[in-house]
Write a structure and sequence with these properties.
This protein is α+β, with helices and mostly antiparallel strands. The chain is built from 14 helices and 15 strands.
């Protein structure tokens, strides 16, 4: 549970009460957060159970009766109810402007705060200027994919029989796994299950010896991200297993294969051999003919779960897959350029401010990405719109300060924003961003975006950004 209420000013204790009450939809214990996944249908399992249980009931610090928090839970706020007072522009300006002048942020800073219920911008500082967003662009990629394909869309990996050859056909699921299922690990389609089903289909047809080919043609264009070979992203392929990782990790930097499709096919062929199917030669790239028969398939988790995993862990491989799924759903080529056009078009349809914006990739690794703070904050407000329920995973996937994903190592045990701030981080050398949501001290749900470039120190900039988000959370500002 959050730290017990201790001493301090009445204002500080009020903020702590709000922090306890406002996250009925968040993971609020270190043990629970360690199992923040798997994700189910747009809402973490732990959050679903907690939301169903109702608002948190705490005991006051004198050991008296239960204290019912005044603020509504976050998930109620996301449903569009807005009964808490609206912060005043002047109050927010007074609270934030001094912090934005912090030298740790560097000379170029941008900020926007938006009331989620109304979409009204409550505060802005250079909010319309395009900045490099780094990984906060993943919120845009996620929203575009959900709008294009829907939260229930699943990515299929299939096997077809073409004479004496079976063809492993990639659909673009980077989470397809060749590993044994692990308790507590995110759900994923299994290459082993696909091989087993293929073997059964072959034996039913009286075939015990085949050749294996693989087809990754659903994606086109260059496979390498513009940043080149990198431990943060594998070559982008419609066929890969475990994101092309060469270790047993499932997020974060790792050595990557240079041949994701070939490696996946070789593992598949080995699994066929293990269940009694003889494989002639090594797998080779190829395509099935028009008379090929479908043998077996496996499907990824729903797009809602992929979005949440992308945002929580800032997963570059899944982000690029989401961009290409957007391209495929929009009739665009599934390459970097086609995906960028498709994502941009979907964001335009959502009515977001795109003046000066440029979408160059899905992950934010490309410094050519440019969006404004007003865009990022407005996007999160749009994701909470009751009329756009398909976008809700953009919010439920945001890391929780001090507990999950890329915010698990930020906001220390005594930080006022711990457990209250939910935000997507963005970090490149010289670029630091933070965009998310908070319930303020009066119970109003706000979205925010803070962006900076050319800060003298990355850690210093992150601390300053965290302080800005915490200030919005603790501010009634009337």
């Amino acid at each position: 549970m959050p730290p017990p209420l201790r001493g301090g000013s009445p204002r500080a204790r009020t903020i702590r009460f709000v922090a306890v009450s406002a996250l009925a939809g968040c993971v609020v214990a270190a043990g629970a957060v360690g199992a923040a996944g798997p994700w189910e249908g747009g809402q973490r399992r732990a959050e679903r159970a907690r939301a169903a249980a109702g608002p948190e009931v705490d005991r006051d610090e004198r050991g008296g009766g239960p204290v019912r928090p005044a603020a509504p839970p976050v998930l109620a706020g996301l449903g569009g109810r807005a009964t808490a007072p609206l912060p005043a522009r002047e109050g927010l300006a007074g609270a934030l402007e001094g912090l934005l002048k912090n030298g740790a942020l560097g000379a170029q800073t941008s900020a926007a705060v938006v009331d989620v219920a109304t979409g009204q911008q409550l505060y802005g500082a250079d909010q319309d200027a395009p900045y490099t967003p780094a990984s906060t662009i993943k919120t845009a990629t996620a929203a575009a994919a959900l709008a294009a394909a829907g939260p229930d869309h699943r990515i299929e990996t299939t096997v077809v029989a073409d004479g004496d050859t079976v063809v492993l056909v990639g659909g673009g699921d980077p989470t397809l796994t060749a590993r044994p299922a692990k308790e507590g690990a995110p759900a994923a389609a299994s290459l082993k299950e696909l091989a087993d089903a293929t073997a059964r289909g072959l034996k039913a047809r009286g075939k015990g010896r085949v050749k294996v080919a693989y087809d990754a043609s659903r994606y086109s264009g260059p496979a390498l991200h513009p940043i080149g070979p990198n431990e943060n992203i594998a070559p982008v392929s419609a066929l890969m297993v475990d994101e092309g990782r060469l270790d047993d990790s499932d997020h974060g930097p790792a050595d990557r294969t240079t041949d994701p499709a070939g490696d996946a096919a070789r593992k598949f062929a080995g699994m066929l051999h293990d269940v009694g199917v003889d494989v002639d030669g090594d797998p080779a790239a190829g395509r099935a003919g028009g008379s090929a028969e479908r043998l077996a398939s496996v499907s990824s988790p729903p797009l809602s779960a992929l979005v949440e995993r992308t945002l929580t862990n800032s997963d570059n491989d899944i982000a690029e897959a989401l961009a290409r799924q957007t391209a495929l759903a929009s009739g665009q080529p599934a390459d970097f350029e086609g995906a960028a056009r498709a994502v941009t078009a979907r964001l335009e349809k959502l009515g977001l401010p795109l003046s000066g914006a440029r979408i160059a990739d899905g992950s934010g690794l490309d410094r050519a990405d440019h969006v404004s703070a007003a865009f990022l904050a407005g996007l999160l407000a749009r994701a909470a719109d009751p009329a756009r329920p398909e976008l809700r995973p953009v919010l439920t996937g945001l890391p929780v300060a001090g507990f999950s994903g890329t915010l698990s190592g930020r906001y220390g045990a005594d930080a006022a924003g711990r457990g209250l701030v939910r935000a997507k981080t963005g970090t490149l050398t010289g670029v630091n961003t933070l965009s998310g949501t908070v319930v303020d001290a009066d119970g109003r749900l706000l979205s925010f975006a803070f962006m900076t470039m050319e800060a003298p120190s990355g850690p210093g900039a992150q601390e300053a950004l965290d302080r800005l988000a915490t200030t919005v959370a603790g501010c009634g500002c009337r």
